[in-house]
Write a structure and sequence with these properties.
The chain is an alpha/beta fold. It has nine helices and 17 strands.
Length: 245
């Protein structure tokens, strides 16, 4: 059962969402409704929902402001708003979907149905051939500076990157670790997106290194050498899609 929190300043909108979910989505349960940013933040912290359906413009702030107050957004986000112009910024938060008001019931039901994939996927002991066949040179290097030394790193030698405030640690297949005084978000932009995926706020992984995906403890990607990397709940769907699932 996927537990949902509604955050919307319009009572009519909340009621419309509730009506659709109650009628057509028995696999979810609405655990609370909030009408502004303050109550929304309190609701997230106290109710710990699996999914938050929120408007972007809400009293005393915005949906973006609310998400920025949460250190690690460990829930799915579904934006429902009357403002199409926020779509580009919204996708920074890896939402389940971005739906426009007035609510189209079929679009809402379709978005909610994707939660089944997120909450119901099991251990994938054997990944599809399209993934297992991808172990090939990535063709290229990245240059990073550590302690005054320039390091030229082949992309296919990177297992994953881990954030630590404004520093990033490179973990290489050779066992070498390199600490760089640059934030992870910069490397997320530089590295090829078809080969590297931001699986969690603190981790950027080489997709070629993925050997298994485990559902236990919220979800983990198992990389080479049995390295376990947590999967942020709101990024599971995008990650599974990137794996070709």
């Amino acid at each position: 059962m996927n537990r949902i929190l509604l955050i919307d300043g319009e009572a009519n909108s909340r009621q419309a969402i509730r009506s659709v979910l109650d009628k057509s989505c028995p696999e979810v349960k609405i655990v609370g409704e909030c009408k502004n940013m303050a109550t929304g933040l309190a609701g997230i912290r106290s109710l710990m929902p699996d999914t938050v359906i929120m408007d972007i413009r809400i009293p005393d702030g915005s949906g973006f402001d609310l998400l920025e107050l949460i250190l690690d957004v460990d829930f799915n986000v579904l934006f429902i708003t009357a403002h199409e112009e926020y779509a580009l910024r919204a996708f920074k938060y890896h939402p389940l979907d971005y739906l426009l008001k007035p609510i189209n019931p079929l679009e809402l039901i379709s978005a909610i149905s994707r939660l089944q994939l997120l909450s119901g996927f099991h251990n994938l002991e054997k990944l599809p051939p399209t993934l297992s066949d991808r172990h090939r040179p990535l063709g290229g290097k990245i240059t990073v500076c550590t302690h005054g030394t320039l390091n030229f790193i082949r992309l296919d030698q990177i297992l994953y990157l881990q954030a630590d405030s404004n520093y990033t640690t490179f973990f290489l297949r050779s066992g070498v670790r390199l600490v760089v005084s640059r934030p992870l978000c910069e490397f997320e932009q530089e590295l090829p997106r078809d080969s590297f995926f931001r699986i969690h706020q603190s981790f950027l992984i080489n997709m070629d290194a993925v050997e298994k995906v485990m559902n236990e403890d919220g979800g983990y990607a198992i990389l080479e050498s049995s390295i376990r990397i947590p999967i942020a709940r709101r990024r599971k769907l995008s990650f599974l899609h990137a794996l070709g699932l």
